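re: ur msg from earlier - yeah i can do the nicotinamide-adenine-dinucleotide complex, just paste it... oh wait u already did. ok heres what im feeding in:
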Amino acid sequence: SLNGRTALVTGSTQGIGLAIAEALACAGAQVVLHGIEAAEQGQAVAARLQEQTGARCAYVQADLADETAAAGLVAAAAAALAPIDILVNNAGIQHTCPIAEFPAARWNAILAINLSSAFHTMKAALPGMRARGWGRIVNIASVHGLVASVNKSAYLAAKHGLVGLSKGVALETAAEGITVNCICPGWTDTALIQPQIEARAAAFGGDRQAGIRELLREKQPNLTLLPPSHIGEVAVFLCGPAAAGITGVALPVDGGWTAQ
Ligand code: NAD
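and the outut:
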């Protein structure tokens, strides 16, 4: 059980982040949710989760495209609830486009939100984890941290970078009761992939299910979108006692994608 532990999950008002927050709260952790939504909106999500699970929950707003905000997030989360024992870097955005037309501003935003924010939050969280001799960091990378697909140059760079960064921090903290791991999801049923589903559906007269089938057929052998709750349960496992010896791994949860 994660009783007595405090978690911060970035980008957790929806999607995979919210599912991870729910799973951690159900496992007994108190959870600081984070997002870009205004305080009132985010606090409503936190209140719902607290009601649902009985775990204490709070909400902190920060735009992770902003380096200063990213660097201050862990302190703000600790102030909102308690010092952070479990850090889940989940916030992320996607933009698909051939490199020749890829807008530089999108490149910068993807690198900042999907990669640099994890550097800033880990840097800020580690001193406290070290002082307490216990910490768990789970970074949500992607299959695209391990293998490539076309038209995802920025996302690939950020996610491959996140896998490398996580391995490095795992080595720096390995003897201190801290683990640092990545989860590498395949197609997961969230808002993030809707533009890609719609682009595929367009080839089938707007048939969304046909678009989803086509995306899965191409890459994901289980032929099923992953439910975000499954990523949540894997995150809880990585934070639990049985995973104390697992550090520096990038764990695919991908229906067989990277086995090919
Ligand atoms: P999502 O769009 O539902 O969630 C993304 C979260 O990131 C949102 O809560 C959003 O508010 C937050 N975010 C976006 N921009 C931000 C900013 N500037 N500052 C702070 N937070 C910001 O999508 P999701 O699928 O739940 O994505 C969660 C993570 O999972 C991402 O890192 C994504 O790359 C990764 N992932 C998703 C899939 C998938 O198929 N859905 C697959 C592999 C990896």
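cool cool. Strands lie at 6-9, 30-35, 57-61, 86-89, 135-140, 178-185, 250-253. ping me if u need the other ligands too
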